[in-house]
Write a structure and sequence with these properties.
By secondary structure, the protein is of the alpha/beta class. Helices cover 41% and strands 14% of the residues. The protein has 11 helices and 14 strands. The protein starts with 8 loop residues before the first helix and ends with a helix.
Length: 366
């Protein structure tokens, strides 16, 4: 039986073995495991790639959200509008800062609905946090217009969308701050956790740089109460290697996505269409079907790895009970949570792999 893994880290390592091992040797030879100066090389290369003044490297995408929002003053009494279908970190970061998450439902493409955002605005709204889910950017033009009209900050949760474009602009260039993850499953992936914030604001960048290093302005002087969220030099060196390959990774994932569209054109599944003003980098490739759970089991039984992003909406999680939501509050999100299935989209899939996946789907769904 053919095996089609959801991810393929072994193939990635084989493709970049000499560069990764060279990076390991360089770091261990110098002994610079924690160094702002060494990490700054990655930050500058990343800022140049995205097209922003500052990229601040941190130890996770969650800390990017936490420290980024703290730096712009999000706190108790503030409301932040965000979708309920993201990974839990988006909402958790809001709650951990003492602010209140206010959910707005999504469209068929799984991204936040600007009309729902407009309806969710209150006098306490401080920011809008769109989540560029699956590698497709949210509809930023109307969201930016709303933010400008009401004097709100825009926080891009761009964890899944490095390299994605909206009307020719990169993810990470719209928000006052934009927060990314470099988790191993991301298109630009570390060998462990990692993340970064992008911004064009000098003061915000300086504040995050302080917060990530205990608030220290030198070894003995603490300017603000901070934490430790530095990116390790080893991870930054891995990411420097992989940043050079990112465009190739995205190109191959987009090729795979287009191949799936053709192979599944006559299958009874829904695939959100790409619009001409967006450039989707396909962190994941999602289909929707009412027989999701049965299909996932069938694929697993035939050697195909899949995932669900995400089966329980945030507003229905046990931790969210205090927010007072119930089933039916966000019907589009809830329906999608029962139907979505992420197929293998990694850049190492062969055409035969994809044909095998598609044939299994069509055979099972009839």
């Amino acid at each position: 039986m053919r095996q089609v893994p959801y991810v393929n880290f072994r193939a990635q390592f084989e493709e970049e073995r000499s560069e990764i091992l060279g990076a390991v040797e360089d770091v261990f030879t110098t002994g610079q495991f924690v160094s702002d100066a060494a990490v700054a090389k990655f930050e500058q290369e990343l800022a140049d790639y995205i097209g922003v003044k500052h990229a601040i490297a941190l130890n996770s995408g969650t800390d990017a959200l936490l420290l980024g929002m703290k730096a712009i003053g999000i706190g108790p009494g503030d409301e932040v509008i965000t979708p309920p279908n993201s990974f839990v970190a988006s909402t958790a970061a809001i709650v951990l800062l003492g602010a209140t998450p206010v959910f707005a439902d999504v469209r068929d493409d799984q991204n936040i609905d600007p009309d729902a955002v407009a309806a969710a605005l209150t006098p306490r709204t401080k920011a809008i946090m769109p989540v560029h889910l699956t590698g497709r950017m949210a509809d930023m033009r109307p969201l930016m217009q709303l933010a400008e009209k009401h004097g709100l900050a825009v926080i891009e949760d761009a964890a899944q969308s490095v390299g994605s474009l909206y009307e020719g602009r990169q993810a990470g260039t719209f928000g006052l701050i934009s927060c990314f993850s470099a988790h191993p499953l991301k298109n630009l992936n570390a060998a462990g956790d990692g993340g970064f914030v992008t911004t064009d604001d000098d003061a915000i960048a300086s504040k995050i740089q302080l917060l990530r290093n205990h608030g220290l302005i030198d070894r003995n002087t603490v300017a603000v109460w901070g934490t430790v969220s530095r990116m390790d030099v080893l991870q930054s060196e891995f990411l420097r290697v992989r940043l050079k390959r990112l465009d190739s990774v995205i190109e191959r994932r987009r090729r795979n996505a287009e191949n799936y569209r053709q192979l599944l054109a006559d299958a009874p599944v829904f695939i959100p269409p790409d619009r001409n003003f967006e450039f989707n980098t396909f962190h994941v490739f999602v289909i929707q079907t009412d027989r999701r759970d049965e299909l996932q089991k069938h694929l697993a039984d035939n050697g195909v790895g899949t995932a669900i992003h995400y089966p329980i909406p945030i507003h229905l999680q046990p931790a969210a009970r205090e927010l007072g939501h119930r089933r039916g509050d966000f019907p589009v999100t809830e329906r999608q949570a029962d139907r979505i299935l992420s197929l293998p989209i990694n850049q190492f899939l062969t055409e035969d792999d994809q044909a095998y996946v598609a044939e299994n789907i069509k055979t099972f769904l009839g």
